[in-house]
Design brief:
The complex is a heterodimer of chains A (257) and B (176).
Chain A: H1 19-35, H2 39-57, H3 64-84, E1 90-94, E2 97-100, H4 103-125, H5 130-139, H6 144-147, H7 149-173, H8 181-186, H9 188-212, H10 231-256
Antiparallel strand pairs in A: 1-2
Helix pairs in contact in A: 1-4, 1-10, 2-4, 3-4, 5-7, 7-9
Chain B: H1 2-5, H2 10-37, H3 43-60, H4 64-78, H5 85-105, H6 111-135, H7 141-172
Helix pairs in contact in B: 2-3, 2-4, 3-4, 3-5, 3-6, 3-7, 4-5, 5-6, 6-7
The chains are: A mainly alpha (257), B mainly alpha (176).
Chain lengths: 257, 176
């Protein structure tokens, strides 16, 4: 679960862009993933996304974790379509199980759509530092007390994950089995309840500590850095929104005629 | 009414983030189990979602419910944990608001109150997930409707009971 923005990113071309430009790019990718209906179009969108990532960051290493997950999801989608798809012609029947010709193309387009969404999300959420996201939210007029929570959550994810792992280890040493799926189901309650109670206690302590340090006392707050949108960012944002609008209008136009 | 809907003190905001992380960890654990046992029904995941949505709102109200829901959805998208993760953004937000609106009207002392709030949250949330099943997974709308209805039914009952007992235990332990 690599969410944190590493210092290595500082040298990359992608850092020249404002987080708002990256957000607009993310919206473009999501729009096309949901609006394209054929595997070819979706492949083109995915290829464009990969190329942009390669050009801007110089590496696709961060997406390696995605491959196994997407293969597993693809297998799930294929099974679902084989079981439930009723489009196309019947190509195989065994008892109540009927396999139709459209099952595989539908599974493929579903997988491509999911891959584009996941890829675009990873691209966006790993492209900027938590501070940039905080500043971006503040530019959207969100009060700093809420915007600052982005950094807090990034800080706490590994801590809470470690806490959960330590609870699992403690319960395992007390004799809790964690070998099969059934064991994992049975272990949810004995591992989850102590985790929940610890989390509530921790949130009370952290909240109190933050309040004692004056968090939220004044309405404004200063930051060591600021976001200033450049001309090329504005041009890119306008171009991307125009692309979405033109594509949307072109989709609606046949209906209007 | 406003007091029963909103709470914006630091403890509530920090609690939203920390319980949001617990929420997302548990969703990932139950999601993996569902991936093996029931990829379309998502019974464990749905129950876990309903339980946390309810518990966080009861403890910290709004905007804590929305914050933790968005946190869970964003991490789900960034970690490729579900093809429907994008729809979780809407499911978590709308489901959380629906729960708050019902919980603000009721005393939340009886099991029936928890079940009612869970119905509101689950119907709206699972509707968003159903749209995801139709749009992304390309499931037939009838199949998507049946799977979402089963998840709603199971999650409403189980999460309603769980929320009441855990919230009661947390109140007794004076942690909230």
């Amino acid at each position: 679960m690599e969410l944190s923005y590493s210092a290595k990113h500082n040298e990359k071309f992608i850092d020249k862009f404002d987080p708002r430009t990256k957000l607009t790019w993310y919206l473009v990718m999501i729009y096309y993933s949901l609006s394209c209906e054929t595997a070819l179009k979706l492949c083109i969108v995915l290829l464009v996304g990969i190329t942009v990532s390669l050009v801007l960051t110089g590496s696709l290493k961060q997406y390696k974790v995605m491959i196994m997950t997407m293969l597993f999801l693809g297998l799930q989608m294929l099974i679902l379509q084989l079981l439930f798809c009723r489009e196309g012609i019947l190509i195989y029947q065994w008892g109540i199980l009927k396999i139709y010709s459209e099952a595989i193309p539908l599974a493929l387009t579903g997988l491509l759509k999911a891959t584009i969404i996941v890829f675009a999300s990873m691209q966006f959420f790993t492209s900027s530092s938590p501070m940039d996201f905080t500043l971006m939210l503040m530019k959207f007029k969100i009060p700093y007390r809420f915007a600052m929570l982005v950094g807090l959550s990034i800080r706490f994810i590994p801590l809470m994950k470690d806490e959960y792992m330590s609870i699992i280890e403690s319960q395992t040493t007390r004799g809790l089995k964690m070998e099969s799926v059934w064991d994992n189901i049975k272990s949810i309650i004995p591992t989850f309840l102590p985790f929940l109670y610890r989390a509530v206690r921790r949130s009370t302590e952290v909240g109190l500590a933050m309040e004692l340090r004056g968090y939220g006392r004044s309405k404004t707050r200063t930051f060591s850095s600021d976001l200033s949108i450049k001309n090329y960012d504005i041009v890119l944002i306008i171009a991307m929104f125009l692309l979405i609008i033109i594509s949307f209008v072109c989709k609606l136009l046949p209906l209007a005629i | 009414m406003e007091e029963r809907l909103f709470r914006t003190d630091t403890k509530a905001l920090v609690g939203a983030v920390i319980l949001g992380i617990v929420f997302l960890i548990m969703m990932q654990v139950t999601g993996r189990i569902d991936g093996i046992l029931d990829p379309t029904l998502l019974l464990f995941n749905g129950t876990c979602w309903s339980f946390f949505t309810g518990l966080i709102i009861l403890m910290y109200r709004q905007p804590a419910g929305i914050i933790s829901g968005l946190l869970e959805a964003v991490v789900a998208m960034a970690t490729a944990y579900s093809p429907l993760a994008f729809f979780f953004l809407f499911a978590n937000t709308i489901g959380s608001i629906a729960y708050s609106l019902v919980a603000a009207k009721l005393s939340m002392e009886k099991l029936s109150h928890h079940i009612l709030a869970q119905i509101a949250s689950n119907v709206t949330g699972n509707f968003c997930v159903m749209l995801g099943l139709i749009t992304v997974v390309h499931l037939d709308w009838k199949v998507a409707l049946v799977t979402s209805s089963i998840t709603t039914l199971v999650a409403t009952i189980v999460a309603g009971i769980l929320t009441k007992s855990v919230y009661g235990a947390l109140k007794k332990s004076s942690l909230i």
